[in-house]
C-alpha cells in the first residue's frame, strides 16, 4: 500500500478540540484537566488510525508554558511508550515561537510517512526564503 500526501486531505476527516480558560485566571496543575485531556487523546487513537498534531495558542504569549505543561502531562502518561511524541518549534515571519507536536501511535501503518511529512513541513516552515 502506498501513501500519498493528498490521502490525508482527501479523507476529509479533521478533528479539533480546544481548551480555554474564560476567566483568565492562573490555573493550577489540575490532575482532573490532565486526565480528561489524556482520556480524549486515548479515545481518539482507540477509534482512529491517525496522527494528532497539536499547536499551542499564541495570542497571550503563554505558548511555551502550554507546551511544557503538555509535555509534562504526556511524560507521566502510563501508555506513553506506545506513542511517538515529537515536539517542535516553528518560527513565524516575526520570529515568534509557535509550539507544536506530532503524536502518533508507533503501530500506525503510516508511521514513517506521517513522521517524515511532519518533519519535512517543520523544516520547510522554518527555512528562510532566498532573497
Protein architecture, described:
The protein has 131 residues and is α+β, with helices and mostly antiparallel strands. The protein has one domain. It is built from four helices and three strands; from the N terminus they run ααβαββα. It has helices at residues 6-11, 31-47, 63-75, 111-126, and strands at 51-55, 83-91, 97-105. Strands 1-3-2 form a three-stranded antiparallel β-sheet, with helices on both faces. A hairpin with a 5-residue loop joins strand 2 (83-91) and strand 3 (97-105). It starts with 5 loop residues before the first helix and ends in a 5-residue tail after the last helix. InterPro entries: DUF6169.
Which helices and strands occur, and which strands form pairs?
Layout: H1 6-11, H2 31-47, E1 51-55, H3 63-75, E2 83-91, E3 97-105, H4 111-126
Antiparallel strand pairs: 1-3, 2-3
Amino acid at each position: 500500500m502506498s501513501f500519498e500526501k493528498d490521502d490525508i486531505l482527501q479523507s476529509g476527516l479533521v478533528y479539533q478540540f480546544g481548551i480555554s480558560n474564560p476567566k483568565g485566571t492562573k490555573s493550577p496543575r489540575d490532575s482532573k484537566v490532565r486526565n480528561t485531556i489524556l482520556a480524549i487523546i486515548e479515545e481518539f487513537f482507540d477509534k482512529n488510525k491517525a496522527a494528532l498534531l497539536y499547536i499551542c495558542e499564541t495570542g497571550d504569549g503563554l505558548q511555551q508554558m502550554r507546551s511544557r505543561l503538555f509535555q509534562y502531562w504526556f511524560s507521566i502518561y502510563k501508555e506513553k511508550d506506545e506513542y511517538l511524541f515529537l515536539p517542535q518549534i516553528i518560527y513565524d515571519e516575526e520570529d515568534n515561537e509557535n509550539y507544536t507536536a506530532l503524536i502518533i501511535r508507533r503501530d500506525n501503518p503510516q508511521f514513517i510517512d506521517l513522521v517524515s511529512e511532519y518533519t519535512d513541513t517543520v523544516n520547510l516552515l522554518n527555512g528562510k526564503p532566498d532573497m
